[in-house]
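One such given next:

>
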Amino acid sequence: MLTLYQLKALRSLKNKIVLVTGGSSGIGESVAYEAAKRGAIVVVVARNLRKLNYVAKKCLILSGRPAFSFAADLTNPDQVDSVLAQITREVGSVDILVNAAGFGDMSPLIDESKKRMQKMVQLNLLALMYLSRQASRQMISQGYGAIVNIGSIAGKIPTPNSSVYSATKAGVISFSNILRMEVADYGIQVLTVNPGPVETKFFDKADPSGNYLSHLPKRVVLDSTTIAKRIWGSIGYPVREINIPWYFNIAILGYHIAPGLGDWAIKKFFDYK
């Protein structure tokens, strides 16, 4: 199992190479900035190179250390392999991987297109698996590392009109639980982060109508900076999973104890379509 000594080696981000996917916006962008503030060499990957370059420049200013941006379509396994190889050549071996790339669609299943369903599975789940596999190999050879996988409360508590998205996030959680056991003896921490609703551009695509966020109390909606701080405050400590806000832990437990009652309550209060 992962020892306290191995965990302590991860606590300082100074000069550690931190790779953040989905680093051009949302949670990924905030995670990159927070890592830079702690002295990391930040590498951001997404499709939009213009936005990535902006994030990398800001990381350089925050950290006083080099920062890098690489454009890649992570739904393409070949591009995943090539961008990781490029990062290894030009920057070095990754010490911490944060899989933050992903998107959602809050539509009933009968309205989902095959193309959109396929893309959600490819980006939210398969790309995360490919990246984790390659990063694990590197980290095993160097004897330490950390992998942070962004799941979602939607992967723990189902809500109507999010079937494909929720399925991918449930997959992220299960995958992370197994990966954690497989790599613990090699000094690698695997942290799953399951946020509730976050005020980012995620909902611009997931729910263009704005119905979902408009029905939620303001105190429930998270800020991405809060999530980033929780992540970096948990790396190097015996934390396996973060469900945020904290009170979702109670809701998760309640749903698993009484799923029938949970389905009724969720359908009544969270079915906004």
Notes: The chain has one domain: 4-270.
